[in-house]
Amino acid sequence: MIAARNIQALIEKRGLPPVGLAREANLNRTGVFDILKGRVKNPRLDTMEKIATAIGVTVQELLTDMPDDSLRVTIAAKIDSQPHSTRVSIDAMFDLMIAQTQSK
Does position 70 have pLDDT exceeding 60, yes or no? Predict the structure, then answer.
């Protein structure tokens, strides 16, 4: 399940264990583990909203297939290797793209 994979990747990135996610989202820890293990195929929308809020993303981000981690690492490395002024421009471009996506 895409959501389970995305949640797992995001909590690992943030150093948040599943128990911590359950606490932050005010959810039953067994329910969170069941989602992460793929035992719950279609979590309720309110559950996904709580998880998204706890992680700091949108529900859409949890349900969208993310690019492979190796691609993300490659892109991040290329951006990091750019001069500061270029990184600032790239950051501004991403902010604009996100704002346009969220306004739709």
Answer: no
